Amino acid sequence: MQSRIGYSASPDIKAAVEEATRGISNPAGLIIMTDYERLPEISALIRRKYPNAETIGTTGTSYFNAQSSDHNLIITAFLEGADCRAGVITRLSSAPAGDLANLAEALQEIHAERENSVVIQYCTNDEERLCSTLDIVLGVNGIHMVGGSVFGYPEGAVGQVSVNGHVYEDACAFLAVKNRTGKVRVYRENIYGRTKKALPHIVTKVDLSNKSVLEIDHKPAAQVYSEELGIPRDQIIDNVLNNPIGRCVGDQIYISSMKTMLDNGGMTLFKRLNPNDTIYFLSLLDYEAVNKRTIEQVQKDFEKISLIVSCNCIYRYILFTGRGYYNKFLTDMARLGPNVGNIGGGEQFDKQHVNQTMVMAVFD
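Request: output the structure for the sequence above.
Response:
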């Protein structure tokens, strides 16, 4: 599969589109990454320039190899050897299943297959409901999905995504991609884990309406966290970069980040936990060693990489920039091949919504 990534730091919309699309012709599909304010106009311009291309767009901080900014424009083009279909899932907060036919039709149109196809998506809200809904179609077909929650829009505004030139709220923009000349594989990088001293706990009381965990082991959630880790209650939220919560599903751990403390000793989270979930309080691992293992695994799986599309959590970004590691991280990832991605407020991987994670799709 052939691909091309265009980049522009120009603040002028028309100049940025012209620069970022230079050299892109007859694309099968396009992914737009830009800032919130410019997404509607850029999406419309791209649609007029490439009326036959299947196009989705998202906003926030994005990166191309070692370049990263929250005010740039990155265009990822799927070219010869790729089949693409874009679509939208609306009403995420109420009835996303009503648009599932859009996804089923997209997979049928590209004749999606497990080894060579993937769904890349960007959503605005209600990620758990979205993942469960998409899995109704993806699970039957055995097609993997990676995606990210829109992040980086102004306070008081709502997240937006675009599909084929149109902007949507309360929605998911997806691009189904088939690599006709090779394979596609997906990866999830977790830089947190259980220590030998970490204890299993059971979630016993929640408020699903606002993603709150109220009780763990029939005790106030904050009390259980504080007793195990020795972190005072008023420092729990600030400790999220060191010891987030991990939901255990089989032998896999999916991270849930603490968001706010409640007066009753509960905590709101960025990933929903359910009653009877088994959880652990995780510890930060040697993230540079973890990323090295990720890179080695991808190199083992691929002889040559044409494109990597990834999403990194805002908390990973804060951790890495705070410790002076972000630029090295991007540079190391770029050694694998063309690496394009964005910083999300959450990540999606197959059936699961997660936090503080990197997810990515890698193409031959």
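The longest helix spans residues 127-141.
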